[in-house]
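Hey,
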Amino acid sequence: APHVDAHATTDTGACAKATRDGIDNFVATQWAADAGKLFEPLPAKDCRYAVSFVGTAYGNRPGIVRALKKKGIDITCFGHGWPNGSVPAEDIPRIIRESVISLNFADSGVHGLPPRRYRQIKARTFEVSGAGGFLRTENVKGLSEFYVPDKEVAVFDGVNDLARNIEFFLAHPLESDRIALAGYERTRKEHTYDVRFHDLL
């Protein structure tokens, strides 16, 4: 660590450990959206998918999707391990933009001793809002530093909370449109890689 100019990390815990160990070249940053792939949101009435998720089927994701389907929620999944399979990277922003609601799961698996599950802010948090999607994401520590919950993105804790809120927003498309636009504007102004690297450099 002392032999490079700087370490950029999304893990604020790593910064604290570095400081504890006398290393002062760790910089906290975060994922972002590609400024070249920003798209204004479509109105919910013009969307192709009610609810979508793009990502690998692993961890607790398949269980959550099964539970939502049992509750009658129309969710379409793309990625390794789902029936629809993987999609080209260039199709992902289109799928997000054409979805009334785009899901993001913050679980990062089991770590540490004793073993426990962790949540983290994922790149998809910013990619969804940047692509014009209405993001519903698992609540995670630190998210409110980047978006105002329930004004720029919507958060959930658990399947029942998620299902209730999906039903609400599908029934109130103007609300989902409002949040999607606010999230897009915040991302366009503050959460692109251009902004991140400007700050880092």
